[in-house]
Amino acid sequence: MASRVFRWLALGLALFLLLLSVLAGWLWRAAQEPPQHLARKGQLVAVEPLSHYRLRDSEVREFRLFSNSGLAADIAVRRPDRGLDHRPLLLVMGGQETGRAAVDVIPDTRGATVAAISYPFGTVPHRSLLEVFLALPRIQQGIFDTPAAALLALDYLLSPDAGIDPGRVELAGISFGAYLASVPAVLDPRVERLWLIHGGGAPAEVFDYGLSKRIPVSPVRRALSDYLAGVAGATHLGPEAWVHRLSPRPLVLVHASRESSLPPAAIDALEAVVREPVEVLYTEGKHVHPKRPEVVTAISELMFERMRCPKVTLSC
What we know:
By secondary structure, this protein is α/β, with parallel strands linked by helices. The chain has one domain: Alpha/Beta hydrolase fold, catalytic domain (Rossmann fold), CATH 3.40.50.1820. It is about 40% helix and about 20% strand. A nine-stranded mixed beta sheet has the order 1-2-3-5-4-6-7-8-9. Strand 1 (about 45-55) and strand 2 (about 60-65) form a beta hairpin. Helix 7 packs across helix 8. About 40% of the residues are buried.
């Protein structure tokens, strides 16, 4: 009896490992073709209101945008009660858990319209590596769709009756968003300035750094990190492939003085590919997080101080 149970367990384990290997191979192949961002963005065909609420001196409205490509993107738009008729626009691609709630943590928009998108993949599981692996098809497709979602959001936000100054459009990629923000910024010439905040390049290095406590065996951890970066489309979506194409539009890099979530190699990889005009700034403290309001405030002050200029420049 015991031997029969053992054989069934062994067979079940073998089938499970086979399924994992098939899934791993399918994900890798899916990442080899570069996403067609503009085709996936398509044309905005419908807008569904989701909710609205008051936030200090602003009104926040959340929407779901629908494209004729089948893409759907959720955004939040924060419009101050007072300000210019033609406001500057800041579109935020924040941390992967924050999404469109990034509009809530900014203490003062100084009269600008601020919008943020939620990532199409939803949330990333954290309880186990197996749970993350099984969620990879959803996460992969969501990552591939993120630049198109940002482009669709810009189409909506820059409609003729939106009250936005078309010469004062800024895009900020913060933390996770800094890895993907270069793509829509390069593809949409309406973006006047790009901010990459507490981000870096070399995603495999970031995965390796983040997994160091869970997987102490370096060769195993490195192999998994390279694989995860590959299936996440790092070759096609990472800032190394895009940010140099932003020039001559201005770029601002903002680093944390005591960076706790990124290895130095990732920051070096990003700085190695940027082109002028570029400004490098620092915020005091650790990596940005909603539970570190002093860091959020410092980042907000950097951005809105520069956005006060009538014409986008590095500084004024």
